[in-house]
């Protein structure tokens, strides 16, 4: 490790080089602030379980791309219970499927070497005497890093919360559990992302197939409580999807499973507080993830940007009080709170098998399917999708 003072004592320590931490780092770097970005992986993103879909709005808003090896998506196939699969085509690509390590590499490229500490794990966090004190471990050495503020972007189980909790751990009813397989075949897949909702494909959650050139990531999952209560194992849903459900059965016939993985994802909508005691939680650590699709890359980037903006303002004012940090939550809620809130509302309608209002009730027309597809790929907000289908569904079902 370089004997640069920055690496031992810095203004902002960012834990985690996922989308949230990387955008936070890029924002601080553009504002000429002192920070260090730490990740336990030498190649961040390499082992991160993810479908890898980034909506075009995310790429535009954060001026990213093109990303090496990106796979453009211009078709969505939707399957809801009690309904046929419907294909929605778009004139323009609605986003890209990428490999997570390539996304990280692209964003890391804009950061100077001395701002990154890769391959070092944060093992302890403390906040005392007006400083954040963090222990780092890389198997062979241990060191201490101090900072004025921490942006904790270390994912769904944020490391800081083991030592300096600013909120309770989300309940199992607010967490999702997913498994996915990477299947490789000899030919390219088309630019189509698939979404399957209903009890045949998941433990009351949803399943997906997101291709990237010759490899498709096929996964399924649901809310942890429902996964535990399910009579079938999650692997059984996935095997059924791959082996018995068309069009995947035909499209994956000659494909070979090259990787299997599982992970948690936060699906509880708006979870607060996300700040306090000189810590800003962001990305999955702050549950910045769509409750309806598990999409979190775009929302994590928003969270990372807002965390960095609050950090800059706090450094300028030399004020790290909870009152000062509260602006962070106001700002991210303004940008994504509506999608998280209404996404949770729709999650229940799309996945609750006991509901009398089956999802297929309101997915009665092509234009409704298009609206839902536009929402899932980020072309329209969740609220605007609900309002658009309201005349045919919500008015009758929930009295709006
Ligand atoms: C199966 C699955 C499929 C998904 N598919 C999609 C999708 O297609 N599109 C989409 O938008 N979202 C998807 N998501 C969600 C998305 O992956 C997350 O929302 C997103 O990665 C969150 O970004 P983040 O930066 O908050 O955290 P992460 O991407 O999880 O990054 C956290 C980083 O912190 C590092 N870290 C953790 N602990 C420590 C520590 N103690 N010390 C140092 N470093 C540490 C990790 O190595 C990691 O690099 C999916 C999630 C899952 C589980």
CATH topology label of the largest domain = FAD/NAD(P)-binding domain
Uncertain runs: 1-7
Q: Give the name of the CATH superfamily of the largest domain.
A: FAD/NAD(P)-binding domain
What is the rounded distance between the termini? Answer: 60 Å
Structural class: alpha/beta
Corresponding CATH architecture of the largest domain:
3-Layer(bba) Sandwich
Q: List the ligand species.
A: flavin-adenine dinucleotide
Shape: globular
Number of DSSP helical runs: 13
Mean pLDDT equals: 92
Number of domains: 3
Q: Determine the fraction of residues in helical runs and give it as a percent range.
A: 25-40%
- Biggest β-sheet strands, sense, barrel: 8 strands, mixed
Rg, rounded, reads 21 Å
> What is the highest CATH level, the class of the largest domain?
Alpha Beta
Summarize the structure in words.
By secondary structure, the protein is α/β, with parallel strands linked by helices. The chain is 33% helix and 27% strand. It is built from 13 helices and 18 strands. Strands 1, 2, 8, 9, 10, 11, 17 and 18 form an eight-stranded mixed beta sheet that branches. It has a seven-stranded mixed beta sheet with strand order 6-5-13-14-15-12-16, with helices on both faces. A hairpin with a 2-residue loop joins strand 14 and strand 15 (215-223). The model is unreliable at 1-7 (pLDDT under 50). The structure holds flavin-adenine dinucleotide (FAD).
């Amino acid at each position: 490790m370089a004997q640069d003072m920055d690496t031992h004592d810095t203004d902002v320590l960012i834990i985690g080089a996922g989308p949230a931490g990387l955008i936070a780092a890029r924002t601080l770097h553009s504002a000429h602030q002192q920070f260090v970005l730490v990740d336990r992986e030498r190649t961040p993103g390499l082992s991160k379980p993810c479908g890898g879909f980034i909506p075009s709005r995310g790429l535009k808003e954060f001026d990213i791309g093109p990303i090496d090896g990106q796979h453009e998506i211009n078709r969505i196939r939707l399957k809801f219970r009690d309904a046929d699969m419907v294909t929605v085509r778009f004139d323009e690509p609605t986003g890209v499927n990428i490999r997570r390590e390539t996304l990280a590499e692209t964003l890391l490229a804009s950061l100077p070497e001395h701002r990154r500490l890769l391959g070092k794990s944060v093992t302890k966090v403390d906040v005392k005497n007006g400083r954040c004190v963090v222990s780092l471990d890389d198997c062979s050495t241990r060191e201490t890093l101090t900072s004025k503020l921490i942006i904790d972007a270390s994912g769904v189980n944020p490391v800081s919360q083991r030592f300096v909790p600013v909120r309770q751990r989300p309940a199992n009813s607010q967490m999702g559990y997913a498994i996915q397989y990477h299947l490789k075949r000899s030919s390219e897949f088309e630019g189509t992302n698939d979404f399957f909702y209903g009890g045949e494909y998941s433990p009351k959650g949803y399943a997906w197939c997101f291709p990237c050139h010759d490899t498709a990531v096929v996964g399924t999952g649901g809310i942890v409580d429902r996964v535990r209560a399910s009579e079938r194992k999650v692997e059984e849903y996935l095997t059924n999807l791959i082996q018995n459900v068309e069009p995947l059965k035909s499209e994956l016939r000659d494909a070979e499973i090259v990787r299997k993985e599982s992970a948690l994802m936060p699906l509880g909508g708006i979870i607060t507080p996300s700040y306090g005691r000189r810590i800003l939680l962001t990305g999955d650590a702050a549950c910045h993830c769509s409750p309806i699709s598990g999409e979190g890359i775009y929302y994590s980037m928003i969270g990372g940007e807002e965390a960095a903006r609050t950090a800059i303002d706090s450094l300028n004012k030399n004020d790290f009080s909870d009152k000062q940090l509260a602006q962070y939550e106001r700002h991210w809620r303004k940008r994504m709170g509506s999608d998280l809130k209404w996404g949770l509302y729709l999650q229940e309608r799309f996945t609750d098998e006991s509901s009398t209002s089956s999802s297929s009730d309101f997915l009665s027309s092509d234009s409704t399917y298009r609206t839902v597809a536009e929402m899932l790929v980020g072309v329209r907000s969740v609220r605007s999708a609900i309002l658009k289908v309201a005349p045919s569904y919500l008015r009758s079902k929930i009295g709006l």
